[in-house]
Structures are given as structure tokens and as C-alpha cells.
Amino acid sequence: MSPYPPWLSAGDNAWQLIAATLVGLMSIPGIAVLYAGIVQRKWAVNTMLMAFTGFSLVLLVWVLWGFNMGFGYPLHLGPGVLGSFIGQPRTLLGDNTQQQAVIPLLSGLIPEFRFSQTTLAYFQFVFAAITPLLFLGSVVGRINFRVWLLFVPLWSTLAYSVNAFLLWGGGWWAQQGALDYSGGYVIHLAAGTSGFVAAAVIGPRLARDRQRAVPNNLPLAAVGAGVLWLGWNGFNGGDPYFAGADASTAVINTNLATATALLAWLIMDLSFGVDHKPNFLGSINGMITGLVAITPAAGYVNGLGALLIGLIASVLVWLSWNKLGKTKLFRRVDDALGVFHTHGVAGLCGGLLVGLFANPNIIVYPGSAGAPAVSYSGLFYGHPKQLLIQAGAALTVIVWDALITFLILRFLGLFMKLRAPNEVLETGDLAVHDEEAYPASTVITRPARLAPPGQATPTAPSPPEPAADRKAPG
Question: pLDDT band at 369, cuts 50/70/90?
């Protein structure tokens, strides 16, 4: 007897599960503690709970119907793009998930998978789960918690599954040759677009909260940022679907672009920032920009391409954050944590830059038995059409996700308030969850001795108010 089916590679299967777990850690605890440390302290619990519930909701959607909508057989809705726009909704609850993994429309176009369908489903789930958690950063501090619980499954079904099928599941844009190695469009451009639209529809935080948006715990945010950075090795390293040379190329490119982008943002702050000082949160924005921008290109470019993508994207997103973000439109739309810039703009930059820097000498899958190796070329390597294809795919994601986000929120707004009432926003976690991230400490004293009849009962002196609690909220 053998522990493995003949088609299964223990190495590939182990790497996909490890990579998936690294990506899962980017959501919980990564995003949960990063965002919880950046928001005002009265919203820390709310932010963490929305991250955990969002992760859980997407898993249920994914198993019940979402995975096959993104990676299954096409649901033929009509001619042209409609024929390969979305997959058929089918469940994973049956007993056939130990079979060899397959993405039907990619069969014969990539090597046969050497792991099971459940491995593929879980690997793709963690990508689906992190996407709504990213645009949570646009609407923290005012979205009605019950709206969040309904919005996430609807958006995952109607927006994310479409994006995944079009670009990763062999759908229309994949058939046109669009490149999105690990989610620059499917995840980050989608998150930036949907977050911005959601912030506009739901409305802003309290004016006082916008003016004093002080992070409550930067060391906690640093932990979350570190988990994101290292977790991204699974994000990009797992996407060739095999533990081969291209996986390691993607990992080193990811770290190179990220380090470059972080340092470039720091230099921009020192050279052109308002106070010309190095800023920790700014550096974290640079880090995220680099991670996002290299995501659509990680296994298609060489080291120089990765370095240039990190540098160019960091400068452009810094300008977007510090210049475009100061315009009237962006002051009016309260994108609380700047998701539009660090995910939307960065994802768009990376997706377009792969149309320039994709290098045909970077082999994704080596050729064998007379079949040619799989690699891709950008404009600088003799394929100018690739840039146009990348732009078309980006436009599709932007338009579709903006429309779906708007319609879902307008629909939910017919039955409930999208924005929590102002009296709830004043208090935050205590009003919504009856919990605090940093509750005030209370001195426990022995019960006072009862006084003789006719005399006042002595009382213990009140403890001094802790210094931290004398500060302004947040």
C-alpha cells in the first residue's frame, strides 16, 4: 500500500499547503493586527472582529459555491466574453475532492497538477479571503457591522469570483493573454476600487475622528506588517503551483521589490515630505506598495525588473497618496487607511509594468517532450501588445468591481443603515461589541468595614486615574 496516489508529488503538495498557510497568516493575524494597531483604539476590537468574520464568511462561500465559480467549468451566459465570464456554482462538500486537481479551461495549457483538488481549493481560498479584508481598511470606523456580515459573501460571489475566473480560471482575459501572476488585479486593484466606492457610498467617519486619526499601537502594527511581508513568500511563491525554479524566482523578486519600495518611500518622505522626517507608517506604506506592485509580475520578470517595479510603483503611489490624495474628491471620500493608493494604484502600476518588463528568459514551466517552455514577453522584450492587454484587463476589473460594489451597498441600504449612528461612532467598540482593546485597570480593594449604627461607613479612597486614560480617545 502507498500513502500517495500515483499522480501526487509530496513536495508540491506540501509546498502548496505551506504557501497557503503563509497567505492565511497574512489575514489572521496579519491584517487583523496591522489594521487594529493603525486605527484609533476605540475601533481596535471592531477591526479585528471584522477581519476574523470576513475570513470565516469567505471560507463558507468558497466551499459552497465560490471556488467552482472562479476555477470550474464555464457558465455560458452568451456570446463573446459572456461565454467565459464566470464558472458554474458547485459545492465542494462531496467526497470527490481527493481527486487530482484540475482547472478545466487550463487543462493542457499548463502542466498537470500534482496535488489534490482540496489543496487547490484551499490555496485559492486564502487569496479570496484576504481581498475583502484589505478593503476593510477603507471603511473602518463607521461601517455597520451587520452590513459587513452581508456585504462580504455577496461581494465574494459577484465580484471576486468573476475576477478570478476571467484572469486565473481560464476565462476571457486569460484567453487574450492577460498576465496577473498572483493577484495585482484580481486582489489588489479590486480591493482598491471596491474600497474607494464603498467609502464614498457609506460616508465618512466623524469629523473629529478624521482630524485625529492617531494610531493606537505602532508595535502591534509592526508585527502585522512583518507577517504580511514574510507571508507574501507564500502569496507569490505558491502561484506557479509547483515547487520549482519559478517559485524561488518569485520569492526573491518579491523581497527585492519590497525592500526597494520601502526605502524609496522613506527617501521621498525625507526629500519631499511636509516635515522632511523619516516616518514609520510611511515606510509601511512603501512596503505594502512594493508587495502589491510585484504581485502581478513576480514570476515573469528578472531581478532588474523587480527592482524597477518596486522603485517606480513606490514613487507613483507616494505621489498619489501625498498629491492626488489632497485633492477635493479624495478629501471628500474618506478612505480611512488609504487602500485606494497602496492597493488600487499599486496593483494597477504593477499590472501595467509587467506589460513592460515581462522577460521571455524567465521560464515559468520548462518545456519537455518537444513542447516549448512557457514564458512571457513585455513591450521592452518585443511584445508591445502585452501592455494594451494589461490595460484592458485592468479597466474590466475597475468597472465591474465598482459597479458591483455600488449595487450591493445600495441594495443593502434599502433594508438597513450602512453607516453606524453617530452616537455609536462616538464610543466605538463599547457600543458595538461591549468590549475594549485596552480596558482601564481597576484597583480591587477589601470591602469596607461596616460602621457602628449611626456612623457613616468608611470608604476606600478612589484610585488615581491611569495616565493612559487621561489622554484623548484614539
Answer: confident
| Cell (9 digits) for 134 | 484589505
Distance CA 436, CA 41 (A): 8
Pick from 16, 474, 471, 473: nearest CA to 244:
16
Of 31, 349, 336, the residue nearest 200 (C-alpha): 336
Between 351 and 371, the more confident residue is 351
Helix (H) or strand (E) holding 147: helix 145-155
Question: In which residue are the cell numbers 510585484 written?
Answer: 294
> Model-level pTM?
0.91
Cell numbers describing residue 235: 502569496
- Say how far apart CA 342 and CA 354 lie, in whole Å: 18
Burial 413-431 (b: 16+ CB within 10 A, else e): eeeeebbbeeeebeebbee
Please name every residue paired with 107 in a beta bridge, in sequence order, or none if there are none. Answer: 110
Q: Which residues of 20-44 are buried (b: 16+ CB within 10 A; e: fewer)?
A: bebbbbbbbbbbbbbbbbbbbbbbb
Peptide bond into 447 cis (omega under 30): no
Q: What percent of the chain is predicted at pLDDT more than 70? A: 93
Residue 175 — φ and ψ, nearest 5°?
Answer: -70, -25
Residue of 135, 130, 202, 181 whose CA lies nearest to 342: 135
Distance CA 29, CA 384 (A): 41
Q: What is the pLDDT of residues 288-341, one digit of tens each?
A: 999 999 999 999 999 999 999 999 999 999 999 999 999 998 899 999 999 999
Secondary structure E strands in 175-226 = none
Residues in the chain: 474
Q: Render 253-273 in DSSP notation, one character per residue.
A: HHHHHHHHHHHHHHHHHHHHS
Please give the mean pLDDT across all residues of the chain: 92
pLDDT at 444 over 90: no
